[in-house]
Hints:
This protein has 200 residues and is α+β, with helices and mostly antiparallel strands.
Amino acid sequence: xxxxxxxxxxxxxxxxxxxxxxxxxxxxxxxxxxxxxxxxxxxxxxxxxxxxxxxxxxxxxxxxxxxxxxxxxxxxxxxxxxxxxxxxxxxxxxxxxxxxxxxxxxxxxxxxxxxxxxxxxxxxxxxxxxxxxxxxxxxxxxxxxxxxxxxxxxxxxxxxxxxxxxxxxxxxxxxxxxxxxxxxxxxxxxxxxxxxxxxx
Length: 200
């Protein structure tokens, strides 16, 4: 597969998410059956439930951010908030402050999700991600101690320089740049020691 075929990569991402949904559903059903059978609550059962919840949150976000966005149908800001909120609930060092309302095309929701993941990378010690503005012009502000910015990634995202060779740990930067380019848009960012602002 060519590394320059984002459409095929998105289809593969969607297929992987689809295939993972069934076993996660089976695990959820199994836990429910164990509870109905009268199994006493335990630390092990709680750990399984929390792990399942985190896995489902990761899967939902991966489906939206890395799968095929599609061209039909809109998504509400509230639905996007639900997906992102579940993701950050499983990451207690990060807090999501959501201030966006309205509806948007799924391709636009994908851009906002990827922008949040990119901004999250600037907060290795944790902090707050504030998402504000409108669905068509959204600002993500990452605030926390010791904001870390990889200049090669962020300058590449803005289109000022080429992005570094693709790295699975930072694939959101490449996908975000490609999604923005497909819509004739770009990303702008600025940062200080304790804050990074990304506008998409």
